[in-house]
Specification:
The complex is a heterodimer of chains A (388) and B (231). Chain A has 388 residues and is of the alpha+beta class. Chain A is built from 14 helices and twelve strands. Chain A has helices spanning 2-14, 18-50, 73-78, 113-116, 124-131, 141-147, 190-200, 221-231, 244-254, 256-287, 289-297, 302-338, 350-377, 380-385; strands at 56-61, 69-70, 83-91, 105-108, 120-121, 136-140, 154-158, 165-176, 186-189, 207-208, 210-215, 239-243. In chain A, helix 1 packs across helix 12. Chain B has a single domain (34-57, 77-227), classed as Rossmann fold (3-Layer(aba) Sandwich), CATH 3.40.50. Chains A and B meet through helix 1, helix 11 and helix 14 of A and helix 2 of B.
């Protein structure tokens, strides 16, 4: 009976200063939303990597990704037992219009690339048209929507790694097999780039940035990786082979510090709100000191007063937290729409919601501890003399 | 009448920083069950401190304080809280009602510690509010009531658990003459009709004149205690 009464009285107390309560609740909601969105940003970075297949291996130069490998390695890799297919890719890195219009561009082996990436769905006629035109490109649906391109359009790119102005013709448009496939890529012919290099910079020709290796069984990934790398040991260009997922996580490791900073900010926001809320609860408890003393004089125990303060604090923080969680979803959608080029997926995970709820609980609990402790300990005669 | 309250060599010393400040110095006093006592004295005489000790909301520095045969100074804090809930009704100068609770809920508050069911609590509260003439105002919040009405709600709250003892600290100190008179009449009724023992601190001689007995304190010492005929 007393527990139910504490909840009722705590709720009534909560709304005594409507403006203060409203502002505190809004503050908690903002903190919880920020926490949720920042966590989702971090999750989304990793989600992009986790979409990488475990059945595909990436072979690159052991020294660094910035060093390429002889394209002739493809034939030797194909002969390793367990390997089903091999293709190769170079990062093209051209500029469309200006730096702000960034999208990833890959020079690929047109004959084999799409066999290894079945998640890129291209109509057969368009794929054939691409394969028969060395200046042809296949672009993702997202780019088509963004720039209003259509098949047959010419797209000029200014080379950065590969000098000069390059002109490509859109021969096909790919869509993702599911919603998580990146539809923002620009795929061109490795042969076309390689021919130009042979003329201008012969020393850079016949090189592949990475090899993509399709294997029979993901469980054999480690053994096949070791077999590939041992085949090139002690050569001029040693290799390093890993699953596509590990390869992409390696990229994320480069921005690990930034992600750590984002995560830290998410927790700092919660800590700041905890301090603000503690101040609110301390003020409320100070104002009600005489009431608490009266309750104790009437025979209510110190613990009743403590629970009353904790109950009020939790009611306030959970209400703010619930509001924050409810707002996280529409705001995450809006954030994703505004930053579509940055993330493949932007989903609020169940763990994030649980952590938001736990944060709201912790804010309420921690904010109440000091005032609950001091109000319970205050002597009744001192409390009754308190000026309110 | 037998002594309900028996006080022997009761002293209370506060500390201000490192300085001991004696407030009560060896008080001896007996108050019979059913008595109506007014504690009077100038500011700082120790009358409120004595009332607080009798009510069990403060602890003496030395001496004994038996109420109904129970040495309340020796009770642990939680037991003392239980003792207060069962045996003491409080009336404060500024009413001390909970602003978020209406008159009904304020009066019901001490009953939450009794284990009575909802229907029984309602019956008790309605009776108490009817007794103080506020049956029609039970849904009103303190800020919707006058000072006199708030004090009557506080009196209903004080008697709701049928306590042995009612302590009143300047119960008319914040009221106009008419409201003060209404409150004093109510206290008379509690004493005469219900046999409640009342110990009241007051500065007001007119108010003190309603008590059966006056006890004067000065500088922490009991000066005299003369029986006074009520009315």
């Amino acid at each position: 009976m007393l527990a139910a009464y504490i909840v009722r009285l705590a709720r009534k107390n909560m709304w005594r200063h409507r403006l203060r309560t409203g502002l505190t609740m809004a503050g908690i909601a903002v903190a919880i939303v920020s926490f949720g969105l920042l966590r989702t940003v971090v999750d989304s970075w990793y989600a992009g990597a986790e979409l990488g297949s475990s059945a595909r291996l990436i072979t690159r130069n052991e020294a660094s990704l910035s060093f390429s490998l002889p394209v002739t390695y493809a034939a030797r890799i194909r002969r390793v037992p367990g390997v089903r297919g091999v293709t190769w890719v170079n990062w093209f890195g051209g500029i469309y219009v200006d730096d702000k219009h960034f999208f990833p561009q890959y020079a690929v082996d047109a004959g084999s690339y799409f066999d290894l990436y079945p998640e890129f769905v291209v109509p057969p006629a368009q794929l054939s048209a691409f394969q028969h035109d060395r200046r042809g490109v296949i672009v993702g649906r997202k780019l088509v929507r963004k720039y209003g391109w259509k098949i047959g359009d010419q797209v000029p790119l200014k080379g950065t790694i590969y000098p000069g102005t390059w002109s490509f013709t859109i021969r096909g448009i790919y869509g993702g097999a599911d919603a998580k496939v990146d539809e923002g890529q620009f795929i061109l012919h490795w042969d076309y780039v390689n021919e130009a290099l042979k003329r201008a910079l012969p020393s850079l020709a016949d090189r592949a940035g990475v090899f993509v290796v399709d294997i029979d069984h993901p469980a054999q990934a480690a053994a096949i990786s070791a077999a590939i790398d041992s085949g090139f040991a002690n050569s001029l260009a040693e290799t390093r082979t890993e699953t596509q997922k590990a390869f992409q996580l390696g990229f994320i490791a480069m921005v690990d510090t930034i992600l750590l900073a984002i995560q830290t900010v998410a927790y700092v926001v919660v800590l700041i709100m905890m301090a603000v809320m503690a101040n609110t609860m301390a003020m409320s408890a100070r104002e009600r000191m005489r009431e608490y003393a009266t309750l104790k004089a009437l025979g209510f125990r110190d613990s009743f007063v403590s629970l009353l303060i904790i109950g009020e604090s939790l009611s306030l923080s959970l209400a703010g937290g619930a509001l924050g969680i409810a707002l996280t979803f529409p705001l995450a959608d809006a954030f994703f729409k505004a930053t579509r080029d940055l993330f493949l997926v932007f989903e609020v995970r169940p763990l994030t919601i649980v952590l938001q709820l736990v944060s709201a609980l912790l804010i309420g609990l921690c904010a109440a501890l000091a005032p609950a402790w001091s109000s319970a300990r205050v002597r009744i005669v001192d409390g009754l003399r308190a000026v309110t | 009448m037998s002594a309900l309250i028996s006080i022997r060599a009761l002293s209370k010393t506060y500390r201000r920083g490192n300085q001991p400040v004696p407030v009560l110095l060896g008080i001896d006093l007996e108050i019979d069950a059913g008595d109506y006592v007014a504690l009077m004295g100038p500011s700082g005489s120790g009358k409120s401190t004595l009332l607080n000790l009798i009510a069990g909301i403060d602890k003496p520095s030395s001496g004994s304080l038996l109420i109904g045969g129970v040495d309340i100074a020796a009770l642990p804090e939680n037991d003392l809280a239980g003792w207060r809930a069962a045996h003491v009704g409080f009336i404060f100068q500024f009413y001390n009602l909970m602003p978020v609770l209406n008159a009904f809920e304020n009066v019901e508050l001490p009953l939450l510690l009794t284990g009575l069911g909802k229907a029984e609590r309602r019956e008790h509260v309605e009776t108490a509010l009817a007794m103080v003439g506020l049956a029609e105002r039970m849904d009103h919040y303190p800020n919707e009531l006058s000072g006199g009405q708030q004090q009557r709600v506080a009196i209903a709250r004080a008697l709701i658990t049928d306590p042995t003892l009612i302590v009143a600290d300047e119960p008319t100190g914040d009221l106009d003459r008419q409201s003060a008179d209404d409150v004093l009449k109510l206290l008379d009724r509690l004493n005469r009709e219900l046999g409640k023992t009342i110990v009241m601190v007051t500065h007001d001689p007119k108010c003190a004149a309603r008590a059966r007995r006056l006890v004067h304190l000065e500088k922490g010492v009991l000066l005299d205690h003369a029986d006074a005929e009520a009315h």
